[in-house]
Amino acid sequence: MMEAKHKAYLEELAAKVDAKLLEYVQVTPETRRQAQVVEAMRYSLEAGGKRIRPVLVLEFCRIFGGSEEQAMAAACAIEMVHTFSLIHDDLPEMDNDDYRRGKPSCHKAFGHAVALQAGDALLTEAFAVILRDPILEPEMKVELLQILTSATGAAGMVGGQIMDMANEKRSDVTLEEQEAMCAAKTGALIRGACRLGCAAGFAPKEQVALADQYGAKLGLAFQIVDDILDVTSTSEVLGKPVGSDAAEGKTTFVTLLGLEVAKTRAAALTAEAEQILSQFPQHEFLLDLTRELLCREK
């Protein structure tokens, strides 16, 4: 369990991100004729979530002496990308999930076509909020967009989703292939969040490399814990269906390693992430957060 002061700080950061996201995404004179898609965007953003990715952006920026203002656009941008991916993930053509974070999925609430467009709009808005930010220098905007597009595209999250879909048709997926898929599908945005924060805070190159390594460890551990919870938790706790991977015969870290070995692997990766964190200044909050993600219940 997180220390009370760290839990309060996490909630404070998440609340700031939530408020800024809704400030960015609202019906304007330019979008009043498309109000339904904006409502769908806000619906998905307001569904909540842990806000881990934007928190990583803000915190790595702070560690290197940057301000929240320097990192907030990038923090919101990566959460928009993450939310776009969840909207599309839930569609029948992908994971076919009717619930997300305890609420009907976007396509269940607004229909498939609107959900598809809401996801597309969130992806493009993610780039727009960085481009429009009044305090970022042009060179910084370019650097942040390079990081975000790399984490999002065919070499990152989208590519990982394609690998995941291809693996659904196979019964011979290896551990190495599963880790490569998760490094892209889940890990790319987490690594990207760490790198965005470092860029916003003008971190030295060697520290950026360390942050990237931390993100890779954390991302893999995060996915293994997700696979564990799909077996050990309930729909009421997670706010989404459980057991669907097993029902569909999908390969997971639990099916590859067994439950206990998967738990051991997640703990080992978390310990490696903690060791990397110890090399950063003012790392206590992130250390506590990293441990909390290993022990989380949803």
Description:
The protein has helices at about 5-25, 35-45, 50-65, 70-90, 105-110, 110-130, 140-150, 155-165, 175-185, 185-200, 205-230, 235-240, 245, 255, 260-275, 285-295, and strands at about 100, 105. By secondary structure, the chain is mostly helical. Helix 1 (about 5-25) crosses helix 3, helix 1 packs across helix 4 (about 70-90) and helix 4 packs antiparallel against helix 10 (about 185-200). The two termini are about 15 Å apart. The mean pLDDT is about 95.
In short:
InterPro entries: Isoprenoid_synthase_dom_sf, Polyprenyl_synt, Polyprenyl_synt_CS, Prenyl_diphosphate_synthase. The chain has 298 residues and is an all-alpha fold.
Average pLDDT over all residues? 94
CATH topology: Farnesyl Diphosphate Synthase
User: What about the largest sheet?
Assistant: 2 strands, antiparallel
User: According to CATH, what is the class?
Assistant: Mainly Alpha
Considering DSSP H and I runs of 4 or more, what fraction of the residues is helical?
Answer: over 70%
For the biggest β-sheet, the strand order reads 1-2
What is the number of independent domains? 1
- How far apart are the termini? 13 Å
Shape: globular
List the uncertain runs: none
What's the number of extended β-strand segments?
Answer: 2
Q: Rg from C-alpha positions?
A: 18 Å
Subunit organisation of the chains: single chain
* Secondary-structure element order, N to C: HHHHEEHHHHHHHHHHHH
CATH superfamily: Farnesyl Diphosphate Synthase
Provide the β-strand percentage band. under 5%
What is the CATH architecture descriptor? Orthogonal Bundle
